[in-house]
Design a protein that fits this description.
By secondary structure, this protein is α/β, with parallel strands linked by helices. It is about 15% helix and about 35% strand. It is built from two helices and eight strands. The strands form two sheets. The protein has a four-stranded mixed sheet, with helices on one face. Strand 2 and strand 3 form a beta hairpin. The radius of gyration is 15 Å and the shape is globular.
């Protein structure tokens, strides 16, 4: 099984560029209605325009905010420091800056995380691999 989350967004092309810039993803579809984003050839995220119904009907209600309330779009990344440099350059809203999880000790994932908001307000987490934090 491989998760392939789909987020409803207001501007597919702008959101695609944001995810490509921050996470280093590659476009595998492109367009203003729908996007498929890949990492190393594997689909990791889909973006869909709130207003495009296609054959399945709407995928979200653009007036029902906050988007993704209680859901974090979480990515384990091998290039955590590179992503942090791109986050510093882009300056998105930081929900939780770079931190160790847990703050100390040997329990839990023992990795680094950073939580930011994407252009639509979804919380996006970049996390280094488990066990990678000193």
């Amino acid at each position: 099984m491989r998760p392939q989350p789909l987020l409803a967004v207001h501007d597919v092309e702008a959101s695609s560029q944001w995810y490509q810039h921050v996470l280093g993803l590659q476009s595998a579809h492109g367009g203003s209605a729908y996007e498929r984003l890949k990492a190393n050839g594997t689909l990791v995220l889909q973006l869909h325009d709130f207003d495009m119904e296609d054959h399945h009907g709407p995928v979200g209600d653009p007036d029902d905010r906050p988007y993704g309330n209680g859901v974090l779009v979480w990515f384990e990344v091998d290039d955590f420091d590179e992503i942090m440099a791109r986050v510093d350059a882009l300056k998105p809203e930081i929900v939780l800056p770079r931190h160790r999880n847990p703050p100390s000790g040997d329990s839990g994932p023992r990795h680094y995380e950073c939580w930011v908001r994407d252009p639509d307000g979804y919380i996006v987490v970049s996390a280094s691999p488990d066990g990678s934090a000193a």
